[in-house]
Amino acid sequence: MGEAAAQGLSAARSGAAGASIGERSNMAQFVFEADLHGLLKLDTPIPNAPPARWQRKAKESGAPGPSPAAGVSPMKPANRSHSASKTPSKTPGKSGSKIQSTPTKAGGDRYIPNRSTMQMEMANFLLTKENDPAEDSPTKKEQQKAWAVNLNGFDVEEAKILRLSGKPQNAPEGYQNNLKVLYSQKTTPGSSRKNGRYIPSMPDRILDAPEIRNDYYLNLIDWSSQNFLAVALDNSVYLWNYSSGEIIQLLQMEHPDDYVSSVSWIKEGNYLAVGTSNAEVQLWDIQQQKRLRNMISHSSRVGSLSWNSYILSSGARTGHIHHHDVRVAEHHVATLTGHTQEVCGLKWSLDGRYLASGGNDNLVNIWPCTQGDSGDFAAVQTFTQHQGAVKAVAWCPWQSNVLATGGGTSDRHIRIWNVCSGTCLNAVDAHSQVCSILWSTNYKEFISGHGFAQNQLVVWKYPTMAKVTELRGHTARVLNLTMSPDGSTVASAAADETLRLWRCFEMDPIKKKEKEKANSAKSSIIHQGIR
Length: 531
What we know:
The chain is an alpha+beta fold. The chain has helices at about 1-40, 55-60, 115-130, 140-150, 180-185, 510-530, and strands at about 205-210, 220-225, 230-235, 235-240, 245-250, 260-265, 270-275, 280-285, 290-295, 300-310, 310-315, 320-325, 330-335, 345-350, 355-360, 365-370, 380-385, 390-395, 400-405, 415-420, 425-430, 435-440, 445-450, 455-460, 465-470, 480-485, 490-495, 500.
């Protein structure tokens, strides 16, 4: 029993010893956690810390100092001289000694005031911002520059949107921008957009045309191949030499009540046909300024004339069209009866195959140059789509079977016809009375003269019928248009008693030289063939 009791006592002691060792281990852990918590909390004295500066000073000078729990605020001036103005509390055993005031808050030699979370976050940001040594380091800047060059193809710091001075930044050598294909590189000639030519909006010259008759159905101006402009002013005809500016009065009607109703130059430009209100068709030699013959076959005024070689066609108010062979004494060789009212538009095609006529009966007739088997002329086409008088008729110079016509106030449409098939190729509403149409020989365009209500000239693109430009200046309706021999200038006669010359089809100098060279080569070949 004694041995068993001794063994039990020994086991109990060993257990108690084990228990005490475990408890000591637990206590050490608790003390470590408490110390760690205190260090993190920063509001309790740091155990086993080196003495504060004031403690070292007090120990060196031998004077008693504040208690270890005291702290000094960093917000106050750092003046610690013994001549402080404030008298601190006296320490027992050291009566009368002057020292600094004893802080009442514990915390060692630091004082950390209470701050809000926002203030702490701002302070942390500022501290890390100021103390970040890698932000301004050359290594990091070089790395950022390398990234910018790899991503963008250039250094972002050097690419300025706005510059106050200096030349724009050039791309680095070898750099290729993908957008350059769209905006910088030249495209193929087929897809490049041609720059529109300059068309002066003001007339090149303005000439007076006093007493010009304001009559829609008359054709009062024409420009010859020898550069003479013929103008009918009431009962007189004047010639204006475009090259020299000389003005010649060619004729004046004998009876004061008679007037000139139409003029037309032969192709060679040496003869002028004149239609009158008393139903006459006169033929004048320009070089001699002499009337060669007076052809009488109509019974009413002759408002339209057109030449086809030696055949002169004349349209009268009765609606009849007469063919005159100017070479023979019996000049009246044919009569065309396809209109019921006055023939106000008359034009032979450039190849001489067809004659187009427009009348006050809103009809457009296409006549052949030769008569039928029965000896009579019959229209090969009759167009009835116009709703007004058709005075404007013009043949396309590069498509011999294409005709342009324009209607009066109640119609206001320009129509393009294929006279062989009889189909209307295109039509456009001009919104104004159409008085005259001329095709350009230098461009794929034509020009139209208008009356009510704009009194303007319009240049149209063919075949799109898009407006190129509008020429304004006349204060009354445009009566007639005619073109210079070189095709660059258009003359317009209007009821405001003025003639205006518009350089709307002037060729580019390079193209003009090429065209002149081609024409000279063509004429030389023809001359050699005649020899």
